Structure formats: C-alpha cells, structure tokens
Amino acid sequence: MGSEGPPAAITTVHVTGFKKFHGVSENPTETIVNNLAEYMKKKGLPKGLVLGSCNILETAGQEALVPLYQTLQSAITARDSDSQSSSSNKIIWLHLGVNSGATRFAIEKQAVNEATFRCPDEMGWKPQRVPIIPSDGPISHIRTTSLPVEDITKALAKKGYDVMTSDDAGRFVCNYVYYHSLRFAEQNETKSLFVHVPLFFTINEETQMHFVASLLEVLSSIC
Description:
Elements: E1 11-18, H1 28-43, E2 49-57, H2 65-81, E3 90-98, E4 105-108, E5 110-112, E6 142-144, H3 149-158, E7 163-166, H4 173-188, E8 191-197, H5 205-222
Parallel strand pairs: 1-2, 1-3, 3-8, 4-7
Antiparallel strand pairs: 4-8, 5-6
Keywords: Cytoplasm, Hydrolase, Protease, Thiol protease
Organism: Arachis hypogaea
Protein name: Pyrrolidone-carboxylate peptidase
C-alpha cells in the first residue's frame, strides 16, 4: 500500500446571529442561523468545509461577554481535543448582524475599540465613548480581519448579490462583538468575519439564506 499523504485541510465555520433588540422586533440573523444547518444539509456543503456551531447571541455588550467567550472558546476546545486535527485546518467565526437601514449586504473589514450605544442594549447598558478593551488603548484603535474582504465581496458580487465592503460596523453591539472576536481570533490563531444583512422586508429570507450559503462557498475557496 502506498502512502496516502497528509489529510486534506478542513475549514470549520462557526456562525452566530443575534436576538431581537430595540427597534427590530424580528432579527433576520436569528432566523438565518437557526435554519442554516438544515438548509446546508439539503443544499450540500462545499468541499473541505464543515459547518460548526450555530449560535444566537444576546443583543448586548458587557453583560453578554461571558456567554460570548464561552461560545468562542468552544471551537478552540473542540479543535484542541481532536487528535486527528491537522495543523493546516482553519477555524472561521462568521458573525451575522442586521442593519435595519441597509439595502444591501455588507462585508465588514474592521471593528473599532469604541462602544457608543445609540440606545440601551437588551441588558440595559448604554455606554458612551467607552473603550471596548481598555488595554488596547484609545477608542480610535482598530482591529482588522485577516480574511481577504475585497476578494470575498468581489466573488459574491460575481454571483449576482448586491454586496459591498464596509469599514464601519457602527458603534453598537455588532461592532462590540466583532472587536472581541477579532482579538480572540488573533490570540487563538483563528479568523473572524462580520457581515451585516438587511431586514427581510428589504431582501427576502430565501435570498438571504442563499447569500449565506454562497458566502460559505466563497470562504471555502478563498480561505
């Protein structure tokens, strides 16, 4: 018997969405993430890609940090406990959030170290010009994803989606979670990406499900 060579590299994508919050009674990302595993089972996953956990996060900052880090850590624990895991295998955290005023999808390039909430989060916290990670320095400090955002956006646009690259994830919970996730990714040699989606009223559920499936396909081919 000849040598079979090293196992093919696997990319595991873990996905999060958010619950409803002030002004958004139905968060499309909660629906997308809750239905994604079943949707991808029917559609079929791209070669070399595994859909990991699908979690719904509280739309909250400081008070929701413990469950957020438990969620992020779960992927590392699973990776480190798998004796068959190849060092070339990748973990990507894909965070989905809604921008209720958007008319297109937005691939977020970065997050900024500033929490300035326009309204209280679901736990009642309303910070103003507070650093998300004080040890990172000023509120102007930026963390950037290591994923090729421009290439991802171009690939999705080629598939016919109305999608843009964004360098402003806001200053609310989406930016707050993304900043923590980018820091965690840097510390644990994983990758993180945040994508803003519109309301279902603007782009319907079926199109948005198809978009996320296409995004997974792009991530498997580019990353």
